[in-house]
Every structure is written in C-alpha cells, then in structure tokens.
Design brief:
Distance between the termini: 81 Å
Mean pLDDT: 85
Number of strands: 9
Radius of gyration: 30 Å
Length: 301
C-alpha cells in the first residue's frame, strides 16, 4: 500500500516564500507595526550624505580604528522651532555604533534595580511571638497530638519557620567593563533607532514649557525626552522642564542605562558627546599602563 500526502500551499504562505528570495519583509502580519502607529514625518530627514555642504561642527578627538569610520549626525538647535540642522557632528563608532547586546542591557538594568535594594520584610520566629510559655496539655492521656507550645509554627498565630528576617541587602556589583559596555550599547541602540539627537546648546528663548513641548512635537522626538548636558544647565530650560513629567534633565556624569531605556528620545549637547567619548573610551585602555608597570601608577585620566 502506498501512502499519498497532499500539500496545500495557501496564497499567504506562497507570498512569504517568494518574498524570502526577493528580499522583501517576511514578517507575518501579526508582527508588523500597524500603519496608524508609524509616524512618517519622523522618517522625512535622511541621514547626512557623504558630500554634505554643511560645516562639521565637531570631529572625533580619539583615534578611530582603520576598519571603522566616524558616525555622522545632524546638529540642531533649540533656539527656534524649525528643524533645520546647523551642521554635522562626527561620533566615535566604538561608543555610538557598537553591536547590540541585549544580554548586557538586561544585566545592567537588573543590576541598577537591585544593587541599592533593601528589603525590610521581617517575620517573628516562635521565640519572639507573645505567649506559648506553658505546655497546652499533657503529653499523654488526652488523645490529642503532642504539643509543647501554642506558638509553634504548626499553630495559627504561631511563629514563622523560614520567613524573611530583614533588613536584607541585595547588593552586588557588576564588572566595570560590563557596565561601560551597557552604556555603549544603550547609546548605540538609540542611535540606530533614530532617537538620538544632538544640539549645539540648551539655550531656549523663553522659560515657557509650552515652547519646549511644541518644539518636541514639531520635531517628532517622541513621548518622553531625556536631555543630557555636562556644563551648567541654563535657567530657561530648567524652568521649562520643572512642570513637565515627560521631559527630564540629567547631568552627563549621572547618565545610566535605566534612564536611557526609560525615555524614548535622548538629546545630547556637543560638550556631552566629548565628555562621554573621553570617559567611555578610556576604559578600553585603562589597564594598559600596567604592562610594563611603572611607578607612580595612576588609574585615573
């Protein structure tokens, strides 16, 4: 007896099979982002071309490896609402174009949530519960199970056998290189998703928060924005963001993975770019002065 099997290929399966050879999107419809959630105006501006006529406002201070090239980004301004760029900025590829590592992002995010966590949950053992000093009944003769105290963990209202005995610290420390790499991956992810923006400074013409909200909405920066600066923050933008819950300002020395992932868009100044590159690239060769070892040795730049 021969067994015959019939394969029926639907139009959807055939289309996905054909598109795999033509290079089209092969994701099923349930995994595609709905068209009403895609903002086409965010994709209007292409990346800077190689022969752009605008001036280069910043170049990489550190040496770029021969097999890599600097990442070009538009430099904008906050002093007017239009989104016309002022020039270009070159970013170091070892900071803003590293390969994505979701495992490192997850490890750093979990560490940030837990390393300062202290649990104050505390339960009483049988010796700390009030009462239960005498034997509830005789050992023998009553027909009931033998007990020595009514505050045994077997009793309702008794002590807890293996409960939490707080305060408990969940402190642990990730290696410095993992934490540095997590920050690089977070910055590179924002860069790849077109949610990283560079401005010349944080000067705005008015302390009105509505001006800042209109500017963010006009440039399609997203629902939440994190502004990072290394210098003294101007008073106008401090007053404008004081009453806004979705626009936050953080100094560059305190930039972390949790804050980057929490906000949709990140705005960096030119001075912040230089500060981050100097600090993050220093960790790539921080141990090289050890070989050969020479006194006096300094572990800081």
């Amino acid at each position: 007896m021969f067994r015959c099997s019939l394969v029926i290929c639907g139009r959807g399966v055939a289309k996905r099979f054909a598109s795999s050879f033509s290079g089209e999107n092969v994701l099923p419809p349930n995994l595609l982002l709905p068209t009403n959630l895609v903002d086409p105006s965010r994709l209007k501006r292409p990346p800077p071309p190689a022969d752009c006529s605008l001036p280069v406002l910043r170049k990489c201070d550190a040496d770029v490896p021969a097999h890599l090239s600097p990442v070009q980004m538009w430099v904008e301004t906050l002093e007017r609402r239009d989104s016309e760029p002022l020039g270009l900025a070159h970013l170091h590829p070892d900071v803003f174009a590293v390969p994505p590592r979701l495992d490192i992002l997850h490890a750093v995010e979990t560490w940030q949530r837990n390393f300062k966590r202290i649990s104050h949950a505390n339960t009483k053992v049988r010796s700390e519960v009030r009462g239960g000093g005498r034997k509830p009944w005789n050992q023998k003769g009553s027909g009931r199970a033998r007990h020595g105290s009514i505050r045994s963990p077997l009793w309702r209202g008794g002590g807890v056998a293996h409960g939490p005995r707080g305060p408990t610290s969940y402190y642990y420390m990730l290696p410095m290189k993992v934490r540095v790499q997590g920050l690089k991956v977070a910055l590179s992810s924002k860069m790849a998703q077109d949610y990283l923006h560079i401005v010349d400074s944080l000067n705005i013409p008015t302390p009105d928060s509505q001006y800042l909200l209109d500017l963010i909405r006009h440039r399609h920066w997203g629902e939440s924005v994190l502004i990072v600066d290394v210098e003294e923050i101007p008073e106008n933008i401090l007053q404008a963001t004081a009453s806004l819950k979705t626009v936050n300002i953080i100094p560059a020395i305190g930039l972390n993975v949790h804050s980057l992932l929490k906000h949709e868009a990140v705005v960096l100044t030119l001075e912040t770019i230089k500060f981050l590159e100097d600090k993050l690239l220093w960790h790539d060769q921080r141990y090289t002065p050890l070989y050969p070892f020479k006194l006096p040795y300094s572990d800081f730049p």
